[in-house]
Amino acid sequence: MSRRKKRAVLAVSVLGVFVLAVLVFVLGFRVTAVKVTGNKFYTEDEIRSMILDDDTFLAGNSILAGFIRTEEKTKEANMIDTVSVSRQGRNTLVLKVKEKQLIGYVEYQGRYVNFDRQGIVQIITDAPVEDVPRVDGLEITDVQEQEKLNGVNSSKLNTILSVGKMLEKTAQKPDRLEFGTLNQLVLYYGTIEVRLGDDENMDEKINRLVGILPELEGMSGILHLENTTEDSESVVFDDATQEEDQEDTQESGSSQTIQEDTGQKDTDKDQLDYSDGSDSADTR
């Protein structure tokens, strides 16, 4: 075989391998299914349309789809932080949505103004958003989406934002946050009122709240965390449930001292000890 024929055969072989590789790449990694995770404010169809519809060339291949610039696609979607595109198997795309976290809302002129951990108004709705607590005691003068809350006392706002960030790690969100007397923060979980006091030792107060709250399921009353510090071994819970039960026997003012786990067990006492309630705002 002449050198020219050898070169021709080699060229055809290389071309054949190239065409086969292209077919495998195009057909073998063709997108046949799309999964969407992490979305709450937007439907799966809205996410798919937002990310994939305007880029059919990249979106049709599970490898090339990773090059889609999702930040450009979602810049008009207020509630989306990021969307990542990944491949599951050869033919399935996974769109993982990270939405912006709302830590509270205030009512303003009959609408619900939802803000994030920076105090930026992300969305204004006609009805409350699920799992976003109401905040009372913040006086605002004007609201605009994508702008910071206007007219709010800066100290109050900073407290709300700080506590809101800490509460993101809790499974159960409060129904409402309120600045009570002396501008001290109070949280409400159903029939449980949690008094946090001022900003001092707020990290420790929230940590105690996270540990104690499951113990109070099905109860009603006031949990006193106003004076909690790292050295506090217990906190006081004014148990309204017990007070109601004791009305028939004309007893009142009962409270419980909730002991923190120090690693030592007292076999003569339960975890919940009773006190007379006269020092119910104190911690020990």
Main sheet characteristics: 8 strands, mixed
Rg, Å, rounded: 29 Å
Shape: elongated
Number of E-state strands: 14
Structural class determined from secondary elements: alpha+beta
The number of distinct helices, counting runs of at least 4 residues, comes to: 7
Going across the biggest sheet, name each strand in turn. 7-8-9-10-11-12-13-14
* H/E element sequence: HEHHHEEEEEEHEEEHEEHEE
Task: Please give a structural write-up.
The chain has helices at residues 3-28, 44-52, 56-59, 70-73, 154-167, 202-212, 240-246, and strands at residues 33-37, 80-88, 92-99, 102-108, 111-116, 121-125, 134-136, 176-179, 185-189, 192-197, 221-224, 234-239, 255-259, 272-275. The protein is α+β, with helices and mostly antiparallel strands and 284 residues long. Strands 7-8-9-10-11-12-13-14 form an eight-stranded mixed β-sheet. Strands 1-3-2 form a three-stranded mixed β-sheet, with helices on one face. Mean pLDDT is 81; it is low at 248-252 and 261-284.
SSE blueprint and pairings:
Elements: H1 3-28, E1 33-37, H2 44-52, H3 56-59, H4 70-73, E2 80-88, E3 92-99, E4 102-108, E5 111-116, E6 121-125, E7 134-136, H5 154-167, E8 176-179, E9 185-189, E10 192-197, H6 202-212, E11 221-224, E12 234-239, H7 240-246, E13 255-259, E14 272-275
Parallel strand pairs: 1-3, 7-8, 10-11
Antiparallel strand pairs: 2-3, 4-5, 5-6, 8-9, 9-10, 11-12, 12-13, 13-14
